[in-house]
Design a protein that fits this description.
With 311 residues, this protein is of the alpha/beta class. It has eight helices and 14 strands. Helices cover 29% and strands 28% of the residues. Strand 11, helix 6 and strand 12 form a beta-alpha-beta unit. The protein is globular.
């Protein structure tokens, strides 16, 4: 027995959701959000979802209203008798709060997982979690997709035999090493020390990048401090060029200015988070076809492991 599928979008991911729905082959569902004068809002589905498999697409980057809107939509779908509710969070916010790294702090990623499950979600689909173990915070299935599916073909195109993969910090070494093995290139790592969050005290390069075309890989670019400092350092060490591939374009604070003024040739990102403004150095690759195809496979109970180019 086959069940109907409907795809809806939160306001933060409207453009991406339209592309995903088109890739899947159905129109995007109709959602209205009523805004009240005190700042409250109320989403409502303007078409039946009874007995349907409902996919709700919403990245949960700040402001917190994006997360709350997703929770309200999940609750609305549950109360409207949807058969299954799948939350698609291309960017899973609060993922950097995946552990207690100092006393008396929250584990925000676990709290968000608890809230999504309490709202009534049956499955989560997301991309490039900041820490893979966040999947274990959920008691429902998690489809964790990888930006490598999108980025790898582009890296192959750029591979002129002179490439070297690089990680902007030790935490990204595993990801960069996976690309290096797949592309048969060398590996360089930046070692950084922080005074406080979003502020780098010192950075050094491990590896020989002289005369090489460097490709930096990371899961996200926030203030771009690490990325641009690493790019400048690679050029100082004799690199010919530096490109960066980052799945999530958080790009907060002075990020755009730093990127424009840096030695980065190009920053390639996906559309899991919409850009706040355009930049001549930033290129966007869409994840819509990937998510559309994974939805098809999920509905038809097919394996999605073919999409894991590098995991």
């Amino acid at each position: 027995m086959s069940f109907g599928v409907k795809i809806f979008a939160g306001r933060a991911s409207q453009v991406l959701a339209e592309k995903v729905a088109k890739a899947y082959g159905i129109p995007l569902g109709d959602v209205k959000v009523a805004d009240f004068s005190d700042g409250e809002f109320q989403p409502s589905f303007e078409e039946t979802v009874r007995g349907m498999d409902v996919f709700i697409i919403q990245s949960t980057m700040p402001p917190a209203d994006n997360l709350l809107e997703l929770l309200l939509m999940i609750d609305a779908a549950k109360r409207a008798s949807a058969r299954k509710i799948i939350a698609i969070c291309p960017y899973f916010g609060y993922a950097r709060q995946d552990r207690k790294d100092k006393p008396r702090v929250a584990i925000g990623a676990k709290l968000v997982a608890n809230m999504l499950m309490a709202a009534g979600v049956d499955r989560i689909m997301t991309m490039d979690l900041h820490a893979d173990q966040i999947q274990g915070f959920f008691e429902v299935p998690v489809d964790h997709l990888y930006g490598s599916t999108i980025f790898y073909p582009e890296m192959e195109r750029l591979n002129n035999g002179n490439l070297i993969m690089a990680a902007p910090d030790a935490g990204g070494a595993k990801r960069a090493n996976s690309y290096a093995k797949k592309l048969n290139t060398g590996l360089a790592i930046c070692h950084k020390q922080r005074k406080q969050a979003n502020e780098i005290a010192e950075m050094t390069v491990i590896g020989d990048v002289a005369g090489k075309d460097v490709i930096l890989v990371d899961d996200m670019c926030d203030t771009a401090g690490t990325l641009t400092k690493a790019a400048d350092l690679f050029i100082e060490k004799g690199a010919k060029s530096v490109r960066a591939f980052c799945t999530h374009a958080v790009l907060s604070g002075p990020a755009y200015e730093r990127i424009e003024q840096s030695n980065l040739t190009e920053l390639i990102v996906t559309d899991t988070i919409p850009l706040k403004k355009q930049s001549s150095k930033i290129r966007v690759m869409s994840v819509s076809d990937l998510f559309g195809d994974v939805i098809k496979k999920l509905v038809n109970n097919e394996s999605i492991s073919s999409h894991f180019v590098i995991s």
